[in-house]
Design goal:
- The protein has 278 residues and is α+β, with helices and mostly antiparallel strands.
- The protein is built from eleven helices and five strands.
- It has a five-stranded antiparallel sheet.
- Strand 2 and strand 3 form a beta hairpin.
- Helix 2 packs across helix 3, helix 5 packs across helix 6 and helix 10 crosses helix 11.
- The radius of gyration is 23 Å and the shape is elongated.
- The termini are far apart.
Length: 278
Amino acid sequence: MIDGYKVIKPLNNNVVVTERYNKIFILSGKGIGFGRKKGEIISEQATIEQKFIQIDEKEIDSYKNVLENIDEDILAVTEEIIDMASNKLEEELNSHIHIGLADHINFALKRLKEGIDIINPFLYEIKTLYSDEYAIGEKTLEIIKERLNVQLPESEIGFIALHIYSAKMNVQVSDSLKITRIVKEVIEFISDRLDIKLNDKTLEYSRLISHLRYALYRIDHNKSLENMFLPSVKKQLKKEFKISKEVCEFIEKRLEKKVPEDEVGYIAVHIHRLIESN
């Protein structure tokens, strides 16, 4: 049995991918990868300043595939980005990001080289919904430019932010994108229903988007939030409540879930604020 960590691939002087007891560990620390060769053993006593990151067992085969097919410079910069994101958010990220983000960055670089421009239609929504992760996405593009001498387009900030948010919340990127897409569709539905162009720079707009994010999550996960002001809203904001019911019928179709009347009341208040501000 190996007494230590067997090097699978040294990514750079500070990051090494290793194996121990049939488990994959990413070791990071100043100089930990300097001069390391595949198959070499790193003892437990070695100076590893930052962390041992274990790849989830069910993802080991996928991660080994990433190691075999993605350039080590890209893997190294991915690990630097993940470490930076974890430090800024002050929490560990689910290990699936080591696969998903590396694969995404690799694919983004290939698209850029081939001259393929990918549009992100949810960029503003992502920036508003996931502001911390979006800021990390901006920093990510700077790191990629510094390390790989490649400038990725602004659209990538949003995609990277979704990967980071998903790893933080331990959900699939597709689930985060689904909520983001529905938020955008609901905003468009409200704009059409009120027959007004919503100003995305206003506080009311930002509050609505933020509320929809959490409301959609609650609805999708069958959670409820009591609205103690519901009787008052139904009485005083009859027009807005009626419109909100239509909005929530739209949400029900998209999520295939029943929207509680308490949520209808909250959205009615936001609709009232939009009408007042316009």
